[in-house]
Amino acid sequence: MARSRSNDLSRAEKVRALRKKQEKQPQAPAMRSPVTRKQVSHKVPVIHRKTTPQPMVTRKTNRIQVPLKSKGAEIHLPALPKFNLGWRLISGAIFLLSLAVIVSFAGFANFTVNAITLEGAQRLESEAILSKANITGQSIIKVKPDEVAKAVAESFPSLSSVRVSVALPATVTLRVAERQPVVLWQGETQSLWIDAEGVMFPVRGEAEVPLTVLATGNPPAAPQPSTADTDSLEDQALVEEGSLENEAHVFPKTTTEFVKGILTLNTYLPEGSNLQYDPEFGLGWQDPAGWRVYFGKDISNIEIKLAEYQAILAALKEKNLSPSMISVEFLYAPFYRLE
Questions:
Q1: pLDDT (tens digit, 9 = 90+) per residue, 20-64?
Q2: Which among 70, 188, 300, 316 is most buried, taking Cβ atoms within 10 Å?
Q3: Coil, strand, or helix at residue 210?
């Protein structure tokens, strides 16, 4: 028992000795957070400079007051007007100056239009276009290309397109494209050309035309737009009567189907005959035997009409009859006339 107590005491003494030993050893200072650290303040030296006050210069609309070193003394100087020039004012001045230069040059003879340059025309001459364009003697500045192109296109239906360009000092260039005729429509009072689109225009110059139609009237007119004005309808009526021969007026336009019918019927034309047109009976020809045959204005059923025509001829030969005219315009109502 006495031995266990001595052991306990010795252990207690060892614990005390260890604690004393730890207390005697120096301990590391605890780490401080950056927030709790004491900031070192640096003092910046401030330099005070002595400045002398500048004299107050006052500006009025018509003079400037400059104070002197003496108290109450000042000099009065005349002030110049202050201008604020903006970009709009500058650009406006440049525009007016350019306009004045152009107007001054417009009166010179070098800027007057006396001729045109024509490109793309084969049958039309520049003098004829110049007479209709109404630009002779005008200044190049006053020439409006759109209006000139419109006037030329209306005056010459033989042109499919017209483009006008101008250049200094007095150059007017017209680039045109002419219509190519495929039919010569030879009427009683005048002859016209017809292109593949059915547009009719006067004969001007020389061109190779595949076929000729001897006509006693105008071809069937193409349907007009419903928005056509009264003047255009009156002109159309005058053209159909044959009283307009000036190229400045619009000539009647036929349908493309009618032009195709003419070209198709020409392949069945007997040798030595010419195609003919009658406003009442339509297209046909004068047979070498002496009679006339008409197939109407619609040639869509030409094969059937030709077969019917041959059947009528055979029936007349059996009866030993010589007709003066045969019409197969209507498939179900053909007829013939005897001499």
A1: 776 666 555 555 554 455 555 556 565 656 665 555 545 555 566
A2: 316
A3: coil
